[in-house]
Every structure is written in structure tokens, then in C-alpha cells.
Write a structure and sequence with these properties.
With 797 residues, this protein is mostly beta strands. The protein contains 13 helices and 34 strands. It has a 22-stranded antiparallel barrel. The radius of gyration is 27 Å and the shape is globular.
């Protein structure tokens, strides 16, 4: 039966691709008559070079295709055409250099991460309307390329509020500060007074699970005081999926799949003139998320007769999350020869965690308490950032005016780990997720200050030269001066060379410095030791240092024929002191470190299978690659208009140096980095990603077809030698979106993501049962859930 499905789908896939090529051939052969007046422009399915950008430059009115550094502009209709329900998956669908893991575990399943140019998620800076966005209070601690990252949760930004996303694919720490090693993602909120709309979308996976419902609304209004207010709101429901393998017992495995979640969000953008040259502005977002994720199954007979009496068929614990996230910015901005922007932004993220449908076997045995629902604690993080930015243009007698900018920033950060209720950390704690102990709890803060200067010159008409310097100081971390030089030379009106060199850094976050937890998997557990704790000190774990980088890029922009835009950029990024999680450390020394922190080994586990880990500056890496984009709007005569977008990203990361293990570990024969960490850094992200998309519009009908190729990703998995080598296999993912405008304001759409139900390479059952019952590699960037379909109704207001 499987062979018949394959033989059916492969020709169908080729037929759809051929259809796109045939449409292209017909359009080229047809007379190039003007399109009918009723035809709408082709959907902007890729990146737009004609959009005015505000990221990566201090100049006003700069177009993306005029930039000295590579930048993608993804518009709101592009995000909608992907059919995805969140910003992370929408960007992954259209940007070759942007990747996101398919699924995580525990908190990692509830808060998504992402990566730009194959680097750590912590090495991409997120802005909203040009202002630094606060970090999530959750840290991703599971074993994959995102391990140890503490990032902005893009899911908490309402999709309905997003007007466009500007993605700067270049080191920019000298312009924007810490984290901008791989680049900058700047989310621009809708701010106009005339647009608005309502959309409702529902869908499900081919497997019959994972029902999703989404509703978005936004509307701009002009106020009597001359101001403009744009409001947005969103609701998203996602049900469980389950792609786990055979558990080998009566309690089935449900751990590998999507969690059930509800997200309710809202946002606003407000601007009001205070005079001819002065404006007040404010914007903000709020999101509430409630979610639950399945954990590994526990079978009958694993613990005691008392546990079996409570759960005769075994049990599957669930981790639940209740999260509130908000951000608000206010500022004043002046215009004229001296432009000034004074602003302040406060953001906060609070997470409450519970472990339900579980049991604490030690608590039950010692006290008879059969509690099954535990408050295991939570996190909270906040950032208060204030900025002053000044810009002035003046004449130096060159081919164009010089732009000089300078500014300052002050940021105050807080981070908390909140202890759970006493029964959640009694002895070994409840199964799957023991509560945070009082010794795990943290309440820390720090301050940072920065100043920068930026100068852009045009010595001759065809040559642009810019430079930036930025100094930052973080309390408890130290100071850093970063610089950047960028240049562009227009050889002709249709061909330009561009390049840059820069230095950058990522200051370790408060979460990375203070995180502590107990993670329980199949037959194993790992204890995360916070740096500076007695256990970490016993292992000789040093304090975290900033990650530092040196980047260089060289490329060109070309328009060989009218309407065809091509960009090619090669880059190299050297990162020193990369923050990773240490190898799993076993043995007497690890046991002593765990005991020193007052942590009890969970019930049912062999102490020899319990490891200690900590975050450390473990390696130096080199990442190099090439990004290519091309777009072409092709008139197709009476057939309408077709926009073609193609992209290719190649990335290769190598480990240049593994840092020496602390002496106490080296003396015990323990290594700082193992095969899992090595593959996470070098092989677990596809080296090649390529996409080809066509958007055809003819009258009221539109169709978007996208094919994306992912090369193989390889990861070593396991908790000790021998490790299992898991491959995803190379795959092509096809997405299709078809729409029909019933009226100029009403559009009905239907579509499919992963149209041909492609999955990663299947893991053999015997291996999967040793790896959280995984059926597929969880690093597959296109997901493990297979194909899905959706129906969407959109009404423009």
C-alpha cells in the first residue's frame, strides 16, 4: 500500500511543477498584451527589493535593493500566503536562511526557537519597530541546535499586527548591540489609518489530528487629534498531534508531536503629531498562552503496587504552561536637519508551569499522598530599555550628503526562577518534571549601557561607504567595543558590488547564567547545575564569558533584465566562546555535584544513568555559506501575472577549537564536548535549502505554489556511548494556496502545507524506544507531522 501511495504522489508532484513551467512557457509565447484592468497584481510571495527599509541603515527612504548589506523584506500578504498560523513557520517557509526545529520537548515544545544562517537562536537580534524586544523567560535546554538558547518568542507577537518583516542577514552588533551576530529580524507593525481586515482559518493534518483554528482582525483609524491608531487581535488554537513510535507497553507513547495550545493576542500602534516637526508614538503587544505537552509514558510495574493501583494501565504525564507576555513602547520623534528619537520600552514574560496526570512515587510511598497535579514553579523575565538616537545630514563636498548618527542606550534586566510547591520537589519529585527547589530559585538583575556612532559617506556617486562603532558595558559581564565597515559600488545601473566586515558579541543572558532544572527522559535524567552553585563549583565550571564574533561578507546585486532581481552574498562568521551545554557527565564526580546542590535523583532511575550538565563557553566555530535570491514579475498577457521567487542558502559550520575541560573534569577523564554537541553544532541543520515559488494572479483567482528542498540533517542522539546517528534524509516540501475573490473585499482560500505528506526518514523502532520513542528526527526543519490542509476566509475592511 505504501508503494502505491508513493507511485501516485510522485507523478502528481511532477505534474504540479510541470504546470508551473507550462504556465511560464505559455506566458513567454503569448503576445504581451496589457493585462485586463480587473487583474490584481501578483501576490508578493517572496522578498521585496522595492520596499523602503529602516533596518541596517540610518538613512531615510532607502530601498532594500539599494542596501550595502543583504536584507529581505517580507510583507504581510507573503506571510498570509504561506497558510501558516504563526510568524516562525511563516518566515521559515519563505526565507532560505531561516530555519526552525520541528518539535521540542518539555518547555521546548511550548516555546518555539529559530536560527538564522545556521547559528544559535541567541545570535539573532529581534526588534519590533526598530526597538529591542524582550527575551522569553523560558530557556531551551533540550538537545538540538537550539540548546542553551534564550530568545525572543516570536509566537507572542500577534500575526495580525505584522505589516512586514525586515531580515538583515549580516553582523550588526556595532549598529544594534548584543546578539546581532547572525543578523537582525525587525518586525514592523501595521500603522496606517486606511487598512483593516478579518480572517478566519481552520485546518487539520492528513493524519486526522492537529486541528487548528485561527482568527485575526486588524483595523486602522484616523483620530480627530490628527493621530493614527491601528489595532489588531488574534486567536489561535492548536490541538495535539502524535507521531511517536511504539512504546513497547500498554501505555502508548504520545511525546513526539505538537502540544495543545491556545494563544490570544493583541497589539496597537499609535502616532500623534505634536507639531510640524515633532511626533509622539507608542506601540505594544500582549499575548496569553495556555498549553500542555505530553511527556514519556510510564508503564505498569515500573514503580510500586500503589502507583499501579492508581494507574492500572500506566500513565502519561503532561507539562502545562500558563504564560503572559507584554511589551509597550513610548517615545517622541523629531524631523528636520537634526532628527531625534527618544524612547523607552518595557517588556515582561511570565510563565507558570504545572506537571499533571502524574505521581510522585516517593511522596506516595512515604506519606500516602496520591497527588497527581503539581505546581512545579515558573519563570519571569523583564527588560526596560531606553534609547536616544540622533541623526543629521550635512554636506562635505562629496557626491552626496553625509549621514551622521549617534545615540545611547540603557537597559535593566531581571530574571526569576520560582520554586514549586513542596510536594513537587519532595525526594525525587513527580514523574517527568520535578519541581524547582528553593535551591534552584533565582531572582537576579543587571544593568547595561551603550553608546554608538554611525557615519555614511558617498565619496563618488557610485560608491557608498559606511562605518559604525558601538561600546557596551554589562554589569557582571564586562565591556566590549564593536565595529563595522560596509561598502557598495554601483558598477552600472543594473549591477552593484557590496561587502562588509564587522565584529560582534552576545552577552550571556541572565537565564543562561542562572538556569537550573531536572530533566527526566527514558531511563535517564540530567541535572542542570546553575553556574556558581556548589555543584557547578565542584565540577570546576567557570563563569560564562561573552561570545565574540568576526564576520565578513561579499556579494552583488544585479538586474540583468527589467523586473528580474538577483542577489548573491557569501559570508564567513567566526565565533569564539560559543555557549553550549556540556556533555552529559556521569560517575562519582557527577553524583557528588548533584548531591552538593541538594537535588534528589527521581524514583525508578539508576543513579548511574543520572548525569550532571552545565552551560559553558565550550567551542570556537566557523560558519560560512552563500545566500542567493531572485525574483521576477512576469506579465502573462491574458493569463494574468506571475511572480517568481527563488532562493538558495548554503551553510557549513566547523568546530575550530574545543576548549579544555576544567581540571577537575580532565583529571576524572570527563570531556566537555561529546558527539551530541558536535553534531548539534555542525550537522543538525541542513547544509542546503532551496526554494522556488510562483504566484499567479488572474482576475479574481490567485494561486501560490512553493517547492522547498532541504538537504539531509544528521544528529547524534543518546545519553551515553554508543550514540545513535539519526538522519532526516533530503526532502522536497510542496505548499499550495488557492484563492478566489468573491467580491473585491471577500476572498475564499484553500491550501495545503506539505501537500504530498512528506516525512523525515523513519527511525527503527528499537532505536526509537531508547530515544523518547521518537519515530522521526526532531531536528527536521519542515516538521514531523506530515501534510495539512486549511480553509481560510478573508474580509477586507
Amino acid at each position: 500500500m505504501a508503494l502505491s501511495v508513493v507511485s501516485y504522489r510522485a507523478p502528481l508532484r511532477l505534474a504540479l511543477v510541470s504546470l508551473g513551467l507550462s504556465a511560464s512557457s505559455m506566458a513567454l509565447a503569448a503576445p504581451q498584451a496589457p493585462a485586463p484592468a480587473t487583474d490584481a497584481p501578483a501576490a508578493d510571495i517572496g522578498t521585496s527589493g522595492d520596499a523602503i527599509i529602516v533596518t541596517g541603515t540610518r538613512e531615510s527612504g532607502r530601498l532594500a535593493r539599494q542596501s550595502a548589506t543583504p536584507i529581505d523584506v517580507v510583507k504581510a500578504d507573503t506571510l498570509t500566503a504561506t497558510g501558516q498560523s504563526n510568524l516562525v513557520d511563516s518566515l521559515r517557509s519563505v526565507l532560505p536562511s531561516f530555519n526552525a526545529p520541528a518539535v521540542g520537548y518539555d518547555v521546548g515544545a511550548l516555546a518555539r526557537t529559530f536560527a538564522l544562517r545556521g547559528l544559535s537562536p541567541s545570535q539573532t537580534l529581534i526588534l519590533v519597530n526598530g526597538k529591542r524586544r524582550h527575551l522569553s523567560s523560558s530557556i531551551y535546554a533540550d538537545s538540538d541546535p537550539s540548546q542553551g538558547s534564550n530568545v525572543v518568542d516570536l509566537d507572542m507577537i500577534p500575526l495580525a499586527a505584522v505589516g512586514r518583516v525586515e531580515v538583515l542577514r549580516d553582523g550588526a552588533a556595532a549598529q544594534y548591540g548584543s546578539d546581532a551576530i547572525a543578523g537582525v529580524i525587525n518586525v514592523i507593525l501595521k500603522d496606517d489609518a486606511n487598512s483593516g481586515g478579518v480572517s478566519v482559518q481552520g485546518g487539520k493534518y492528513y493524519a486526522g489530528d492537529g486541528t487548528s483554528i485561527q482568527a485575526n482582525a486588524d483595523k486602522g483609524v484616523a483620530l480627530k487629534d490628527g493621530g493614527v491608531l491601528h489595532l489588531s487581535a488574534g486567536y489561535r488554537y492548536q490541538d495535539f498531534t502524535n507521531r511517536s513510535g511504539d512504546s513497547g507497553g500498554v501505555q502508548p507513547a504520545k511525546v513526539q508531536g505538537m502540544p495543545r495550545s491556545v494563544v490570544v493576542s493583541g497589539g496597537y500602534d499609535y502616532t500623534r503629531p505634536l507639531g510640524e516637526t515633532l511626533d509622539f508614538y507608542s506601540f505594544g503587544t500582549y499575548a496569553w498562552r495556555k498549553a500542555r505537552a505530553n511527556e514519556n509514558p510510564r508503564q505498569p510495574g515500573w514503580f510500586s503496587d500503589a502507583v499501579d493501583a492508581l494507574y492500572p494501565q500506566g500513565f502519561t504525564p503532561q507539562e502545562t504552561l500558563n504564560e503572559h507576555d507584554f511589551s509597550v513602547t513610548g517615545g517622541i520623534k523629531s524631523h528636520g536637519d537634526w532628527a531625534m528619537d527618544l524612547s523607552s520600552t518595557y517588556g515582561r514574560d511570565t510563565v507558570k508551569l504545572r506537571n499533571i496526570s502524574t505521581i510522585n512515587p516517593d511522596l506516595l510511598a512515604d506519606t500516602g499522598n496520591a497527588q497527581t497535579d503539581f505546581n512545579v514553579g515558573g519563570f519571569a523575565a523583564s527588560e526596560w530599555t531606553s534609547n536616544l538616537d540622533v541623526k543629521h545630514q550635512f554636506d562635505l563636498g562629496l557626491a552626496g550628503p553625509a549621514t551622521f548618527a549617534f545615540g545611547a542606550e540603557n537597559r535593566y534586566e531581571t530574571y526569576e526562577i520560582r520554586a514549586g510547591e513542596p510536594t513537587s520537589y519532595y525526594s525525587g519529585g513527580p514523574q517527568a518534571f520535578p519541581g524547582f527547589r528553593p535551591s534552584d530559585a533565582a531572582n537576579v538583575h543587571r544593568n547595561s549601557v551603550a553608546g554608538y556612532a554611525d557615519l555614511t559617506l558617498r565619496p563618488v556617486k557610485a560608491w557608498e561607504l559606511s562605518g559604525a562603532l558601538r561600546w557596551e558595558h554589562y554589569n557582571g559581564v564586562g565591556s566590549r567595543l564593536n565595529g563595522k565597515l560596509a561598502s557598495r559600488y554601483d558598477v552600472t545601473d543594473r549591477f552593484a558590488l557590496r561587502g562588509s566586515v564587522s565584529t560582534g558579541f552576545h552577552a550571556p543572558t541572565l537565564a543562561q547564567q542562572n538556569y537550573s532544572a531536572t530533566t527526566v527522559t527514558t531511563g535517564y535524567a540530567s541535572i542542570q547545575l546553575p553556574l556558581g552553585s556548589p555543584g557547578a563549583n565542584l565540577l570546576g565550571a567557570p563563569a560564562l564569558k561573552p561570545e565574540t564574533s568576526t564576520s565578513a561578507s561579499l556579494g552583488f546585486v544585479a538586474e540583468p533584465v527589467h523586473g528580474l532581481s538577483i542577489t548573491v552574498d557569501a559570508y564567513r562568521i567566526d565565533v569564539k566562546n560559543r555557549i553550549i551545554e556540556s556533555a552529559y557527565l556521569y560517575g562519582d564526580l557527577a553524583q557528588a555535584a548533584i548531591a552538593a546542590n541538594g537535588t534528589t535523583i527521581p524514583a525508578g532511575l539508576d543513579p548511574g544513568n543520572v548525569s550532571a550538565v552545565f552551560f559553558t563557553n565550550g567551542v570556537d566555530t566557523r560558519t560560512q555559506g552563500v545566500d542567493m535570491t531572485a525574483s521576477w514579475v512576469m506579465p502573462a498577457g491574458a493569463l494574468g501575472t506571475i511572480r517568481w521567487d527563488a532562493g538558495l542558502a548554503y551553510v557549513d559550520t566547523t568546530i575550530r577549537r574545543v576548549h579544555a575541560a576544567p581540571a577537575v573534569l580532565a583529571d576524572a577523564g570527563l570531556a566537555l564536548v561529546d558527539a551530541v554537541q558536535r553534531t548539534n553544532l555542525t550537522n543538525a541543520t541542513p547544509s542546503w535549502k532551496a526554494s522556488l515559488a510562483a504566484a499567479w494572479t488572474s482576475g479574481p483567482l490567485d494561486l501560490t505554489l512553493r517547492n522547498t528542498f532541504y538537504s539531509n540533517a544528521r544528529q547524534a542522539q543518546g545519553y551515553a556511548e554508543p550514540y545513535y546517528i539519526i538522519d532526516t534524509g533530503a526532502r522536497v516540501i510542496t505548499d499550495l494556496d488557492i484563492g478566489y475573490r468573491v467580491t473585491p473585499q471577500v476572498r475564499v482560500g484553500v491550501g495545503a502545507n506539505n501537500l504530498f505528506d512528506v516525512h523525515p526518514r523513519m527511525i527503527p523502532t528499537a532505536i526509537g524506544q531508547a530515544l523518547n520513542y521518537d519515530r522521526y528526527s526532531h531536528v527536521a526543519p519542515y516538521g514531523i507531522n506530515g501534510g495539512s490542509y486549511y480553509l481560510r476566509l478573508t474580509v477586507n475592511l
